């Protein structure tokens, strides 16, 4: 067996020890009078789990506070067993956590918990989104009138829609403010999440018309379609003014990266 083959085998055995508790690698670990091979391996196995626990704790501080110590430990132990780390960056290790909470026999009884985890991950995703300049309100004055019907919006990469079916966001807000969280209740809502110009993550609820318009622009629709959606909601007499007000507000909030008449593929970013 070549040196590179032996090295690859040892690496596989070490990963099996960390991920599945396999002890085959102990034959190749030297012990001494202080620690035998099994004890030395145990240090690495414990360190691996502690590091993953730290990642979950850091990524989901509000979820951890909401669950309390015992339930948080139950979630962490179950998640580490069910979802071994397969990512080069631990930043993405908890991406499947909401799905795990939805499927776990215990936590699935409380669907607002998975939703709370999903909301925290959405905040992280917006915070980590790529940098991109945003368009200014003054850019509207530079648009030739003839391109308005075909005008499309390119949103900032951090912007996403988050759909909740319970009052999970209100629970998150109360815990963040160190207040007693409300009892979980069904409460469908839609939220816009984005990273502002000061690189702080923000969110706010989106009324139905705004939801439809964002969804439409995400899908690659143009200003003509947006005008039709607005007219159906508020009437033709006030549709133009309402749509312009919404567009100005989005520009002021830093949601829009570009105004263009060039078609682009859909880029839907919704979290449900």
Automatic annotation (TrEMBL):
Domain Putative DNA-binding, residue spans: 11-101
InterPro entries, A to Z: DUF2063, DUF2063_N_sf
Protein name as catalogued: Putative DNA-binding domain-containing protein
Lineage of the organism: Bacteria, Pseudomonadati, Pseudomonadota, Gammaproteobacteria, Oceanospirillales
